[in-house]
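Internal ticket #5521
Category: modeling
Description: The requester needs a full-assembly model to guide mutagenesis choices. All entity lines are attached below as received. Residue total reported by intake: 526.
Assigned to: D.W.
Attached entities:
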Amino acid sequence: MTSPPLGSLNSASMGSPFWNRLTETMPRAQLDKLHLHRVQALAHYAYENTPFYRKKFDNAGLKPSDIRSLDDLKRKVPITDKSEIIELQQQRPPYGDTLALPMDFVAHHCETSGTTGLPLAIPYSTYDSVRYGESWVYGFWGLGIRPSDTLYFAFGWGNFAGFWSAYWGARRLGCRVISGGGLDTKGHIEAILRMKPTVLISTPTFALRIAAVAAEMGVDLSKSSIKFTYHAGEPGPTALPGMREQIEKAWGAKAGELLGIAEVDAMAPGCPLGDGVHVNEMNLYSWSMDPISQDEVPDGEIGENIVTGYGNTAQPLLNYRTHDLVRRRSTCACGRTWSKLEGAVLGRTDFMVTVRGTNVYQTAVENILNKVEGISMHYELVLTHEEGNDAMTVRFEPEASIDPANWQKLASDAGDRIHKALHVRLKVVPVAPKSLPRFELKTKRIIDQRPKELRRALDR
Amino acid sequence: MDIQQQIMRIRQARELIAGALQGVDIPQIEAMLRNADMELHWALWNLGEPVALRPELEYAARADMS
C-alpha cells in the first residue's frame, strides 16, 4: 500500500462533492431516528446538569423521559428564548444557571455582538469547538475549498464567535490560515496582495468595503489570488442575491455563506447551488414554528426557525428561538437531504415593523434596494414612531458615479419598487456618498429611534 | 472496508485507548489519549451511531457498571 502525499486526503476523499456523503444524504427517516435518540439524550443531559432546564421542565410538569417522539419535543418542551439566558447571566455572571459542565471544561468564551440588545455570554468546551468548526467545513467543502487553500481572515477576533468558529473549521479542514488581525482596510489589501491567500473570510459588507477601498487605491481585487469568499454574521450572498453579484464581481471569486447562531452552532452551511443553506443535521434538530400560535409550520411555508443544538454541551439549548424567519424544504437538487432554508433568513421576527398595517421586514427592503441600479450597499433603515404608528425611513448612499441631480429619481424608483412589492409606501431619502458609518463586523442597518417601551423586548 | 466494518474498528480503537488511559500518570499523554478518544467518538457520531452526547458520559456510565 502506498502512502498518500503528506498533508492531503486520499484521492477518493478529495474527489467527493460532500464532506460526509453518508450523513449529508441520509434518508429522512434515518435522520429522524437519530434525532430522536440525540434529542432524548440532550434533554436528560440538560435536565440533570443545568438548574435552568431542571426548573423549566419541572415548571412544565415534564420529565425528559416524557419525550418519546420529535412531536413531543415540539409540543411539550417549553420554548427557550435568548432573553431568558441573558437575564440569568445578568443575575449571576458570567453564565448564570445555564452552564452544564464544570468551569474546567470551558475552553473558550465568546459573546454575541449585542446587535439586538445586551450581549449573550457563550461558553464552549473543547469538544464543542470541534463540533462547531466542523459545521464550517461542510460549507467550505461544498463550495470547493480544499485543504490546499489558504484562508485570509479579515477579522479583528475579539469575542465574536462567528469567525473564531470559522478558524476552528479551517483547522479541521487543514487549510493554511492567515490572520488579518487588527489591520486596517488598506492593510488587509496589502496583506492579500503580498500573501496571496485563496479564500477571504469576512462579513459580506466588509468584503465590499475592502473592494471599494482597493479600487480607490487603484487595485483590482478581481485579479487577485482570491478564488472564494466566505461570509457570515449578517445577511449575505444567499439572502441577498444583489450582494452576491457585487461581491463576486468585485473579487472575481465564488461567494459562499453560512447561517450561524453564535450560541448554537455554525448551523447551516451554504448550499453549493447558492440559493439557500442546509441545516447541519449532525449538530442540531430544527423545525419551523408560527411565532404567534407556536404551532408547527409545514415545509414550504414561512415560520420561525426553532433549534435544538447537540454541539454546545457547555450551554445546551432545546427548542431555542432564533427569531429567524425561514422557508424550509426537504429536498434539494444538490443531493443533500439536510433541511434546506431557501434564501437563508427571509426576515427577523424582531426586526419587523408594522407600517400602516403591513409587516415590513428588514431583509425584504434590503432585497429591493439591492436591485436598484445606482444604490450602493450603504444604507440604513430608520424606525420612528409617528402619530401612533411605526414608520420606516430608508436612507441610502447613491453610488459615487451617480450625478447628484439624479439622486431623487433613484429614491423615487426605490420607493415605487418597495410599494409594488410590499404594498406600503416608505420614505426613501438619498444621503451623500460616504456619509453613513462603516463597520468591520456586523453592519448596523436598523436605527431604531422609537421610544424604548414601543419596541420588542430584544430591540430595546 | 464497508461502513459497518469501519464502525467496528473505531469502537475497537476506543477500547484500546480506554485501556491505555488506565493508570496513565503523564498529563501530556493522558490529554493526547482523551483527544484521540474524542475524535473517535466524533467519528462514530458522524457515521450515524447513537453514541452519548460526550465521551465523558460514557466513561461515567462505564465506571458505574464496574
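Resolution: model delivered.
Comment from assignee: The first strand of chain A starts at residue 106 and ends at 111.
Ticket closed.
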